[in-house]
Amino acid sequence: MNFEWDETKREINHPRHKIDLADGHNLFDGRPVIAYPSPRDGGFVS
Q: 21 with 11: CB under 8 angstroms?
């Protein structure tokens, strides 16, 4: 799978959201994902 992004937007969003789109390929490498409820904020942790 190929990934594309706007490099300028990536540089702006990385410090703001602490997520680097350049690492996004790791989310789609075929390994199963385990998610469970977060004890902190009611969201989920994967």
A: no
DSSP string, the chain: ------HHHHHHHHHHHS--GGGGGGGGSS-----EE-TTTSSEE-
| pTM of the model as a whole | 0.47
Nearest to 10, CA basis, from 23, 18, 1, 20: 20
Predicted confidence (pLDDT) per residue in 32-42, tens digit:
878 788 888 77
Q: Are 26 and 4 in contact (CB under 8 A)?
A: no
